[in-house]
Each structure stands twice: as structure tokens, then as C-alpha cells.
């Protein structure tokens, strides 16, 4: 997008709150840096979030796939701890098929296939709404129920939402969803009510390992860069940041991550793009098609005959 | 089920609900236990496919009614006006019924938001349904002909938008099956709208006065066939969702019906049976196309393949 449009639909945008109309003296943009390299999968964040935000229980099922029995983010789950189990070679840190037991006859000697992959590693990551710089859910909301807060976050006003559901397929991360009990859309608010009091969001407060770090986004980005460098020096070459870059498809995330594998392994899209980036083009194609249909119908009446 | 993101590759190269053999042509990819990356739209069937069809059909009908009026074709004017009113009113009803909180439907008009196709669409649909409803009342009552003509003219200004805004509504999402075809989808929907209105006109208007409607049905059907094909060809990997499974079946049926309709329309000038055949097949084709596109999008949301692989293949977005 060219700079003369002010990057209102996509591209780097230093201050989304100001773009949304807040005066320049609004609070700093706040966010999360989730460092998955120190996550222990305790799920204290999930529990703290549910308790503080009074979210109902949404199923006590066993997924049978891992220690993750939450499944995914949703209307009643605003923090979700993903849990991935991998077998790796400790010297090269390369992944090898883990060959977990399944149904039927046992598979032949997984040890030999695995070679030097003698170590199992667990990847755990506490996922959350990304509070995008360019939030598709907010862009497409027809009622104005979704809004940009003074902290640069994206929040649903439950008393305005009419449950149209447009935000649900608009989100490139699959975060926001409809609450069955209320019929309205619901997602992480970054604990809007706590931020106003100068408090830390419940999940970050509860995190025992500081895997979830809350603070001004600029500070978090600096801290994250340092952490990646540190990990690379320690030989954890697969450490990478996700969602930190203001030049990415959503203009950078307000909640970003340090990951130890490809994003899709954690259930995250590898290269998300805010759908409204293409809205001006879509409008042009739709206008052209609308003009074409009007002209064609007019043509149908020119032929005479009744 | 394996407990490794790595192993999910093998689980994901094929569709879980179909036997293997469909696996060919799909490269392995990684995912979180095969779970979807994006959320499946919560929009309900038949509400939303009906909303898509009815809105488009009523838009094209309104234009048909105004042009019939201008050319002194009273029977076609009447059918165009009534189809526009019934279609747009039913479209509004379907939209409201789909809401999670139907009592708050008026919040749709709380703001005007150009970044939301549903907001823009609501601001098209609300005055359009109001105007066409008033025109229909005048038409049935045989009253207030001049105001009715003015109101019909006003609705005709909004009508072209009615035929295409729903395409932007679907395309402006993260659903790969809808977003990746945003260039072609408005043209497919516009053709489908013209086919829908033309089919109803062909069936409901006396044969001697239905020639323009028959032409609309023929051109609309041809447009659906050709542009639908073009859309699939340009869809890349996403095309698989349009060709396989339930959406594939529905869209093949839509194409068959789109092929039947113009054939019947050619004889509809001479035969009442042919006129009704053209009307029914054209309407069914238009409905099936909307439903097929809707289902194809839902399939691409359910299956992480359509999200992960195309995003992996393209260059990372950098401004």
C-alpha cells in the first residue's frame, strides 16, 4: 500500500490508537510477548483468564491427541496452551518422526529409524488474540461493536454486538468466535478492565515462568530481540519471533511470540494477511461487475420483442 | 492419532472423511494435529445461501422491472417489481434470522463503515427493500403510479450493488476459498443474479412478453458457466475445494442446470412447459451456485491445508 493512504488498511502503522481517533496523549500501546521457550504448559494462564473474565466452562473433554485438552482458542477460551511432542536429535536438534503407539500391529523398531534422535522435546505455547495492528475482525464488524482501545488493543462491546458473525471468518488466526449462551462474539480483551487500573492482565500475572510478558509493545519487541539472540548463542538456532514485525501482513501483532518451530506446528498461520488489505481491489471488481450486470440487462431489452 | 505435530503431516495429506486415493497431488504439510487454523464461518444453512440468492435475484429483478416499465412491458414490469420486493424482503428476513441476537438487527444501521462489506451491504439492502416493498404495494393496489415509478427508479440505482455486494462480503474474509477468488466472485454472483431474475421472469410472465427475461436467463446462465470455470481455473490450490466433496457435487449440478436453462429458454417463446423448465432450472442453478460457493469456502476453512500450504508457497508479505 502506498504511503499516501496512511496505511489505514495494511502496512506499518506506528500508532493504531491515534489512527482510531484517540488524542496523542493516550496510553502507550500494550501487548504480550509470549516466550514459548520457557513455557512449562501449566495452563495457569487459561485458568486465570477464565476466572478473571468469568468465562464459562466449554467442555471437559479429553482430546486424546496430547496433554492439550482445550483444543483451540474460542469464544470462552481466550488463552490456549498448545502442546506438541517431538523426537529430536540432541546434537543437530533436527526433528524425527516420533512413532507414537497406535492401533494395530506394532511398527518395526522405531529406534533405528530415529537414528540419533534420542531426545523427546515438548513444545508448549500459550496462544492468545494477537490484537493486530490491522485487525480484520474490527474492520469488517458492521455494528461498531469491535473497537480499538486507547491501549491499542481490539475489544468487543458485548452490548452492541448483534451476533452477525462476520468477525469469525475474518480473523486470519481463528481467534474470535460466537458464544453459544449469549449469541454474541467474544475474545480476549487484554483484560481491558485491569489495564484501566494499571494492573497486569490476569494471564501474565498468573504465569509462573514469565513466559507471558505484558508491557508496552516497543519494550517487549526489544526484549524479544535480545531473547532470540541469547537463545541463538546458546545453540537454540530454531528460535524465531512470530508476529513481531510491523511489516508483516497484519502490520504486526500486539501479542507476539517466540517459537521453537514453524508457526503451523503450533496451529498458527505461517503468513497471515489482513483480508481488508484487498478491500479496495474487491470494491473495484464488484463495482465493475455491478456496472456490467446493469448494462447487460439493458442490452437484453434492446433486442425488441416482448 | 499421533501426538506429534510432525506426524500430523501424514494425517493431513488427505481428507479425513474420504478414502485415500484423493491424497494424490497434495504435498505434505505440517499442522497442529490437523486442527483448522482459521475458524469455520458460523453462518447457517439455509439462511446465508438463501440470503445470497435472494439478494442477487431481487437486485436484477428491480432493474428488469424498471426497464420493462420504460419499454411499456406491463406484465414483465409487474413480475420484476414483485420479485424484487419479495426477494429483498426475504433476504432481510434470512439475514436477521441468521443473527446471534436477532432483536438487535437494527444495530446494522448504527454506523456506516466502508471497511465492512456487511455495513455497506446493509445500507444498500435496507433502502432497497423499503423502496421495492413500497413499489410492490403500489403495483398490486394499482395506486400512486408516479411515486411508484420514482421509488422504482431509486431502487434501480441500488440494484446493481445488490447483485455484487454479497461477493465482497464473502471475499473479505480469511477463508481461502472465498478470499482467493475475490476478482472473479463478483462476476459469478452478478451472472447468477441475472440468471435468477431472468428465470423467474421467463416462467411467470406470459410468453409473448417474456423475451427480455429469456435473454437475461440465457446470458446469465452462460456467464455462470464461463465465469465459474474461469474462477476455478484461477483459484490455484483452492480449486480442489470447488471440485471435490459436497461443494464439487453441488457446483456440478449447478453447471448442469445452467446448461439446461438456456436450452429450455430457446423454446420458451413457443412452449409453456419449456418456459417453466427454463424458470425452474435457472432458479435451481442460481441457488446451487451460491450454495456451492458457500460450502466450498467452509471446506477451505475446516481443512488447514488450504491455509498453510498457499501461505507457505507465497513470498512473505513485506510492505
Automatic annotation (TrEMBL), chain A:
GO BP term, pick one: formate oxidation
Domain 4Fe-4S ferredoxin-type: start-end pairs: 30-59, 120-151, 152-181
GO MF: 4 iron, 4 sulfur cluster binding; metal ion binding
Keyword 4Fe-4S found: yes
Annotated localization: Cell envelope
UniProt region (Disordered), positions on chain: 1-28
Residues engaged in binding [4Fe-4S] cluster 2: 49, 188, 191, 203
List of residues binding [4Fe-4S] cluster 3: 129, 132, 137, 171
GO cellular component, one term: cell envelope
A Pfam family that the UniProt record links to this protein: Fer4_4
Keyword GTP-binding: no
Cofactor: [4Fe-4S] cluster
Textual note on the cofactor: Binds 4 [4Fe-4S] clusters per subunit.
Gene3D superfamilies: 3.30.70.20
Designated name of the protein: Formate dehydrogenase iron-sulfur subunit
Source species of the chain: Actinopolyspora biskrensis
UniProtKB/TrEMBL annotation, chain B:
Keyword Hydrolase: no
Positions of region (Disordered): 1-33
Record flagged with keyword Transmembrane: yes
InterPro entries reported in the protein's UniProt record: NrfD_2
Domain of life: Bacteria
Pfam families in alphabetical order: NrfD_2
UniProt keyword annotations, A-Z: Membrane, Transmembrane, Transmembrane helix
Biased composition (Basic and acidic residues): 14-29
Transmembrane segments: 50-70, 82-100, 120-138, 150-175, 187-206
Coiled coil: none
Protein name: Polysulphide reductase, NrfD
